[in-house]
């Protein structure tokens, strides 16, 4: 007997979310799966799950932001609170994106495409990787510390959302650099989930920034009100910063590797968070 369409749709969504969580975090996901899905030996549809990546990123950023807010309420100084919030995010993700950043930075030391890919698969971290990790943590922590605690929660949520949306753009625009690995499992990227993910990222970013800047006492002014102008400006700045990071990392990956790998996606996520958080400090 075939399952009801509603049940089939729910099971499909739960599997997609489980795929996204298992890829982007170290959180347990077996509770999302039905008994049949747990028993199945079929490959998980990683490409189909991309629609939920921006939402997962927003959730991770929001959790880190909430910890920062709570630490600030306890009168902890801003910079150590920001450092602990980022450490908490790394625990949730297993440092997956930071590992990709370090590997891609180390790969820059290679002189040929083949040598760069070989270096990126080496589990050891070189001086380029250490520098990239240190600078990325410094930029993110100082940017979060520069924001008011309440706005930092929403800024981290926006940066997490846009960082994972960047992964979708790179996976859609670049070919896999290797015949195996994560990039190959995502190729070809399904267009339906891709566009849904980008739409969700845009809606989530706009809604969060609107909540961040909206003043309940402002009832006049329409679209030219100060709050709406700040919302538009912040949205454009955050999106522009994410696009800049995407272009920088994507251009480097195409030039050095001829495509993207899982490490390139991790590097793109971290660089996007650095750019978005830094840009938001200029307008908030």
How would you describe what is shown here?
With 284 residues, this protein is mainly α. The protein contains twelve helices and no strands. The protein has helices at residues 5-24, 35-39, 53-73, 78-93, 96-107, 113-121, 127-146, 149-173, 182-186, 191-213, 226-257, 262-281. α8 runs antiparallel to α12 (262-281). The longest helix is centred in the C-terminal third of the chain and has 32 residues, at 226-257. The relative contact order is 0.15. This is Adenosylcobinamide-GDP ribazoletransferase. Pfam families: CobS. Joins adenosylcobinamide-GDP and alpha-ribazole to generate adenosylcobalamin (Ado-cobalamin). Also synthesizes adenosylcobalamin 5'-phosphate from adenosylcobinamide-GDP and alpha-ribazole 5'-phosphate.
List keywords for this structure.
284 residues, mainly alpha, 73% helix, 0% strand
Give me the secondary-structure category: mainly alpha
Mean pLDDT: 90
Number of domains: 1
Q: Roughly how many Å apart are the termini?
A: 56 Å
Helix content: over 70%
- What order do the helices and strands follow? HHHHHHHHHHHH
- Our Rg estimate from Cα atoms comes to 20 Å
Shape: globular
Low-confidence stretches: 1-7, 215-220
Number of helices: 12
Binned strand content: under 5%
Please outline the major beta sheet: none
Total number of strands:
0
